[in-house]
Amino acid sequence: MSTHGADETPRDAGYDDWLDGIEAGEGIYLSCPNDHGSLPPRRVCPHCGSPELTEEPLPGTGEIESVTVVHVAAPSHADDVPYATAIADFGPVRLTGMVRGVEPDAVEVGTTVAPTVERTETRDERVLVFRPR
Amino acid sequence: MTEVHVAGVGLTHFGRHPERTGRDLFGEAVQRAVTDAGVPRDDIDHLNYGNFMGALAERQAHQAPLMAEAGGLQCPATRYEEACASAGVAVREAVKSIRSGERDVMLAGGMERMTNMGTAGATEGLAIAADELHEVHAGITFPGAYALMASAYFDQYGGSRADLANVAVKNHANALGNEYAQYQREITVAEAMDSPPVADPLHLFDACPITDGAAGLVLVSGEYADEHAVDAPVTITGTGQGGDKMALQDREYLAQTPAARDAADEAYAEAGVKPQDVDVAEVHDCFTIAEVLALEALGFYEVGEGIGAARRGETTRDGDRPVNLSGGLKAKGHPVGATGASQIAELTRLLRGDHPNSDAVPDAEVGLAHNAGGTVASAVVHVLEVAR
Ligand SMILES: [Zn+2]
Known about the structure:
The structure holds 2 protein chains of 2 kinds. By secondary structure, chain A is mostly beta strands. Chain A is built from 1 helix and 8 strands. Chain A starts with 14 loop residues before the first helix and ends with a strand. Helices cover 37% and strands 18% of the residues of chain B. The complex binds zinc ion. Chain A: This is Zn-ribbon domain-containing OB-fold protein. Chain A: Residues 56-116 form the ChsH2 C-terminal OB-fold domain.
């Protein structure tokens, strides 16, 4: 657990590259010949085992499918509370992220959101964030 | 295939024992189980031991041989880790070992020490059962993950926080007479509704407590029981295990738990029983919504119908099929790595007739234990039967 911020901690290859892409507005997901979607890091499709994964552009917006407002956090997010964390449906894949740009209690299922990468209050670590569109 | 009998059960008190070491807790559970079984300790062939986060809580890995030693067992030992289903898996693998004829007498159990970590430490520890990259980074906690399942359930099938509060009230009422339970006090629906939010829609009284405790079972083959005239009327007649994608976002369903359904189907088929044959069940209610999801996965209710079971009185001690007569994880407590074995210990006592709540199910012949790991990325189900 580093206090120096995510840039100085070892990268998780695949995952951090994926975040880089979203940060640059070039988000991707992985697709197999059977049209199953998944997120990196992957060597094979988690749904069918196919090793033929191709990178496809992540749809620019998704729809919130479920949301919670966390009041009791782990130490890594202690100064961020209360925060909304949601699962959003992007079609071929779902993503899980913190919701910002709206009061946590006001986040609703069905809200259209765009993914971005921001930093946590607590440890200045990178976090996937959804902002309403 | 040989029968597997539950010859003895042993539990520690579940609760806050921050100063007690894991080895002390497990040693007590083994002592009680061996005494209850009346089987010579030297006959035990192997220890199957469940533990989730001892490396964090006590800086102690390689716990299996340590725990065999703590229990005075002169046999090899293996640790099983499957988050909150660790002990369920340890029991299941013991059942398979006895059935295969490889072993005759086994100790299966588990232990978790948690309260010494504090609330923040335990919250961090429990979160490692989720997907570190895609869930924990995004702020998901253990309650947060179940809150997402509850939110999805409400959205898809309806239900309310009051329905969930009724589950908590029921399980607290059941724990009243259970000397091993962490909370031996009744609560009201209003109290549960008014408790502080942890992860909306789940509040404090929707959540199981942070618990220290241990559980052990002595399991013996039918041949051994016959040969040594062991008094062990309860048999494990079905075992099943199911799996799902680790992260909620990668699952087909957010408000169903197919891993538990698959585990139950396997256990039912082995035992030759159907959901409607089950007289009494201990299910994995780490959160109130988890009990609802379990009732549906086990085939007791259609999807979307389990939410009102406690409110309607169908799963209370006076209901048709009492659920969590021990108090459940909610009120009895949830020492993660011990829970799966403790559920079977409670069921065994309920079926034998020596549990404080046995009078609620005097004619029960079939019991079911449902133990889930994480957000049910893993699940283990056992069917227990008693000769009447
Ligand atoms: Zn595929």
